[in-house]
Design brief:
81 residues, mainly alpha
Length: 81
């Protein structure tokens, strides 16, 4: 019985699993922080590209509203003729 207790106390495999778990959590936290920080920059870039494409097709582009989450849209004037 004493041999099993000593073996249990010397076993460090659980500590390794916890370390890997902490590393994975840290990587996830850094990823979330990076995507949050870059979110408006990426949205602005896509809006600029979409605006150019819409203008090139003869439309009028309304930019994405970051506050409400409403996506940008391209609209075309109705042809009455």
């Amino acid at each position: 019985m004493l041999k099993m207790v000593r073996s249990f106390l010397k076993d460090e495999s659980g500590a390794t699993a916890i370390e890997y778990g902490l590393i994975a959590a840290l990587v996830a936290l850094v990823g979330v922080a990076a995507f949050t920080a870059l979110g408006t920059t990426v949205t602005g870039s896509f809006d600029a590209i979409a605006s150019e494409l819409c203008d090139g097709a003869g439309g009028s582009y309304t930019a994405t509203n970051v506050d409400t989450g409403e996506a940008g849209s391209c609209s075309f004037a109705a042809d009455d003729g």
